[in-house]
Specification:
Membrane topology: Multi-pass membrane protein
Number of domains: 1
Structural class: mainly alpha
Number of helices: 11
InterPro entries: MCP_dom_sf (IPR023395), MCP_transmembrane (IPR018108), Mito_Carrier_Antiporter (IPR051508)
Pfam families: Mito_carr (PF00153)
CATH architecture: Alpha/alpha barrel
Subcellular location: Mitochondrion inner membrane
Strand content: under 5%
CATH superfamily: Mitochondrial carrier domain
Helix content: 55-70%
Solcar repeats: 36-136, 151-247, 261-353
Oligomer: single chain
C-alpha cells in the first residue's frame, strides 16, 4: 500500500536526460582543395604586395641610395676638417626632391619592373606559405592549446621566419637587379656606391648579362644577407601582425561585423607592426643593399668589398660606427610602414573577396 501511494504521489515520470547536441564537424579537405587553398593564398599574397610596392617604391629608391652614401668611409671628427665624400642625400625628403628634380618620375620609380616580380616571388612565398608552415610547426611540436592560441607564438615566429627565408632565396636575383637599378645614376654628381650601367638594358637583358659574366653564383650573390634580412623581418611582421590584430580585436575599440574586423582594425595592426619590423630589420637591410650593389672581385668568385653578410656588418661598423647600420632609417620606415599597411590591407580585402566568392558557390 505504501509503495503504491508513493508511486501515485510521485507524479509523471521525469523525461530521460537529453543527449548533448552533436558538434558540427567539418569534413577534412582533400588534396585538391588543400592545393587550391594554398595557391589562392600565394596569389593573394603576391597581388597584395604588388599593389603596395607601386606606391612605396620611391622610398625604396631613396633608402637604397642613403644606405650606399658614404660606404666604408672612415669616421672623422667634425673639427678635423678632413674631406669627406659627397652627400647628395642628407635626408629622406631632400633625397626625394633631388632625385625628382634630376631624374623625374622615372628616377623615383627606378627598379619597379623587377620589384613587381620580386614581390610576386617573395611575398607569394612569404604570405602564401606562412599559414601551412605555421600549421606544420604546430602539428610537429604539438603546440596547439585547447584553452587558446598562446602556445602557438613560437610556431608563428618560426613559421614567419621560414616562409621569409624561402621567399628571399627564390627572389634573390630580382632583389639584386632591383638594387643595382635603383642605385644607378647617369650623372656623376649624385651617384653613390658602385654603378652598373647595364641595368639600362631592362630586366631580362640585365639578368642575362649578369649570368653571362658571373654565372649562377653572380645571380645569387648576397643571398645570405637577404635571407637574414627577410627572415628577421618576416618573423617580426607576420607574428606581430597576428598578435596585434588579436589584441586590438579583443580591445573592444573596433567593430567586428563579420568576425574578421574592418579596415580600421587592419590599419591599426599594420601600423604597429611596421615599427617593430623596421627596428629589427634595418641593420640587415643595410648589409643586403651593400652586398647586392658591390662590384665583383677580379677572380669573379666573390664581391669586391664583402665576402658575406656578416663580413659586411663587421666592416661597416668598424669604418662608419654602429649608427651606420641605421642609415636610411627614415626612408626605410616611410617605405616599410605604408608597404606593410597597404600589403595587409590589400590582403585582407582580397581574402574577403575570396570568402564572398566561395560563399556563392
Amino acid at each position: 500500500m505504501s509503495s503504491t501511494t508513493t508511486t501515485a504521489n510521485a507524479g509523471p515520470p521525469s523525461p530521460p536526460p537529453r543527449a548533448p547536441p552533436a558538434r558540427a564537424t567539418t569534413a577534412p579537405l582533400g588534396p585538391t582543395a588543400i592545393a587550391i587553398h594554398h595557391a589562392s593564398q600565394f596569389s593573394m599574397g603576391a597581388l597584395a604586395a604588388c599593389g603596395a610596392v607601386t606606391f612605396t617604391n620611391p622610398f625604396e629608391v631613396i633608402k637604397t641610395r642613403m644606405q650606399l652614401q658614404g660606404e666604408l668611409e672612415k669616421r672623422m671628427p667634425k673639427a678635423s676638417g678632413a674631406p669627406v665624400g659627397p652627400r647628395p642625400y642628407p635626408n629622406a625628403i631632400a633625397a626625394l626632391k633631388t632625385i625628382f628634380r634630376n631624374e623625374g618620375l622615372r628616377g623615383i620609380q627606378r627598379g619597379l619592373a623587377p620589384a613587381y616580380i620580386y614581390q610576386v616571388l617573395l611575398n607569394g612565398c612569404r604570405l602564401g606559405m606562412y599559414e601551412p608552415i605555421k600549421a606544420g610547426y604546430v602539428t610537429l611540436f604539438n603546440l596547439a592549446s585547447p584553452s587558446g592560441r598562446a602556445h602557438e607564438l613560437p610556431a608563428m615566429v618560426f613559421g614567419g621566419a621560414t616562409a621569409g627565408l624561402l621567399g628571399a632565396f627564390v627572389s634573390s636575383p630580382l632583389y639584386l637587379l632591383k638594387t643595382r637599378m635603383q642605385s644607378y645614376v647617369a650623372t656623376a654628381g649624385t651617384a653613390v656606391g658602385a654603378q652598373h650601367s647595364y641595368v639600362q638594358l631592362g630586366t631580362v637583358r640585365a639578368l642575362r648579362r649578369i649570368y653571362t659574366a658571373e654565372g649562377v653564383r653572380g645571380l645569387w650573390r648576397g643571398v645570405d644577407a637577404a635571407m637574414l634580412r627577410t627572415g628577421v623581418g618576416s618573423a617580426v611582421q607576420l607574428s606581430s601582425y597576428d598578435s596585434f590584430k588579436r589584441i586590438l580585436a579583443n580591445s573592444g575599440w573596433f567593430a567586428m561585423h563579420d568576425g574578421h574586423g574592418g579596415l580600421s582594425l587592419h590599419l591599426g595592426a599594420s601600423l604597429i607592426t611596421s615599427f617593430f619590423v623596421c627596428i629589427s630589420m634595418n641593420p640587415f637591410d643595410v648589409a643586403s643593399t651593400r652586398m647586392y650593389n658591390q662590384n665583383t672581385a677580379a677572380d669573379g668568385k666573390q664581391g669586391a668589398l664583402y665576402k658575406s653578410g656578416f663580413d659586411c656588418l663587421v666592416k661597416t661598423v668598424r669604418a662608419e660606427g654602429i649608427a651606420a647600420l641605421y642609415k636610411g632609417f627614415t626612408a626605410h620606415y616611410l617605405r616599410i610602414g605604408p608597404h606593410t599597411v597597404l600589403t595587409f590591407v590589400f590582403l585582407e580585402q582580397l581574402r574577403k573577396l575570396g570568402r564572398f566568392a566561395f560563399s556563392k558557390e
